[in-house]
Structure formats: structure tokens, C-alpha cells
Amino acid sequence: MSFAGKRIWITGASSGIGAALAEAFAAAGARLVLSGRRREALGAVAARVQPDAAVLPFEATDWAALPGVVAQAGAIDMLVNNAGISQRSLAVDTRPEVYRTIVETDLLAPIWLTQLMLPGMAARRSGHIVGISSVAGRLGTVLRTGYCAAKHGLIGYLDALRAEVEQAYGIGVTTVLPGSVRTQVAANALLADGSARGESDPNIEAGMAPSACAQRILAGIAAGEREIIVAEGAEAFAAGLRFSDPERLFDMLAKEGARLAAEREKGGRPEPADIGRTLAD
């Protein structure tokens, strides 16, 4: 697949993986529509990668506004659902509203935006939907019960959608499962009370560069991969272990859960460990 001349709409484009995807698609000759909540940050990305890109800020969970946003975007060749938020809190401590925020942002928002785009794509018998899930959409990772629930759900939705639209309407569906990427995802993650964590963690700091992640995603889409796992080392191993030896994986992750629970009982703040250490223990 060539991206040259394709009109590609990226949500969550103001930073991290979204901004890196904007740069990579622009370099490949695509015409961009960039969305997120922060107009100024989106404008800065556009100025750097494609000055004539369309900047279309919106709140992903403003359900009433979304039909109007879709009308403004116009005909789109590829929708990249990238906007999202993570979590760093134990389930036993997490308020219900935190789950609502995460599920609405990471699952319902991309589903609804996709649903609004589908009729036009089906009528044209062309189009492509890309959903950025996570390796946490395969694994039950500690401190991320809400995030894992949403990302597992997104994979299920996209897999079922692909079965309905790929051959029937010529619409491609690609699911992307990044591992740790050096972005602000951990710093912006929600704690048990709904506040932002405010700092990164070891997995993210040791993660892949956003530019490398974006290049892997573009290569996978161009090659026609329906599912792209963008992970290295222990994370890639764990993603495979979910199918090859799930009982072993469950035991490994439960041991990490026990460590965090013990930390909590002592009055400390449960902190994520390096996943390589978790799998090696």
C-alpha cells in the first residue's frame, strides 16, 4: 500500500505516537488531518511536519459533537484511532469514575468515531481503519485493570469489524499493539483517585522511540498486516506467551501482583517494575 496522496486522519496527534505517526505519514506523501484536545500543540505538529495539514481539535468523548467533527473532516482514506489514556493503580483502590473515564476514552470513543466513518467508507467501497491498542490488550498487566479492559475490548471490536467489512466493502482494518514507547503515557496515566501520575516509569523510559514505533506501524500497514505487534524483548516474549503458555504467564504476573499488594499493605505506593525483571523472577 502506498500512502502518497491519501487523506489520513490521526487522533491523539499532538504528542507521542500520534505526532510520530503524523511525521511518518507526511514523509510518505499523505495529506493529514490532525486531531486532539490542544489546538496549539496540534498546530505545532502541523508546522513541523506538514504546514497545510488540517487541524481539527475535539474532545474524544463529546458524543454530541462528534457527528459535526466527522462532517468537518470530510472524506477520509484512513482513520487512525490513537488517542487514549493509561492507568497506574491497583483495582482494590480505584474509584469507579476512573474506569468510566478510561473505558470511554480508550474504547467507546474510537468505536463511535469509527462507526460514524463507516457509512461513507462502505458507500465508496474503500477505506482503512487503524486502531492503536496495546500489548496490554493481550496481557492482564498489573496496575492497569481499566486500561487492559479497554484495550482488550478494542482488539475484539476491530477483529469483529474486520470480519464484517474487509471483503464485503473493501475496508481494511489494522490493529496495532505497541509495547513500551518513550512518551508521556505513564506521566499522564490516572491514579486510583483520577489524578494524573505526574511521572514516568522504568518500562516507558526504557522503551522504543516514538519514531521507531511509527515506522514499524507504517511498514506493517503497507505490507497488509492485519495485526502489528510493536514490542521488543520481554514484552514481545510475553505477548507470545499469552498463547503458547498462558498458565506460565499468569503465574509470572500474579507474582508481581503479590509484590505490589505487599507494598500497599506496608503503606507504600505500588510502583511498576521493569517487565523484564517480572518475567525473569
Automatic annotation (TrEMBL):
Gene3D superfamilies assigned to the protein according to its UniProt record, in alphabetical order: NAD(P)-binding Rossmann-like Domain
SMART domains documented for this protein: PKS_KR
Entry similarity comment: Belongs to the short-chain dehydrogenases/reductases (SDR) family.
Official protein name in the record: Putative oxidoreductase
Gene Ontology MF terms in the entry: oxidoreductase activity
Pfam families (alphabetical): adh_short (PF00106)
Keywords: Oxidoreductase
GO cellular component terms given for this protein: membrane
Every Ketoreductase domain range: 6-184
Residue ranges, annotated region (Disordered): 261-281
Domain of life, per lineage: Bacteria
Biological source species: Sphingomonas changbaiensis NBRC 104936
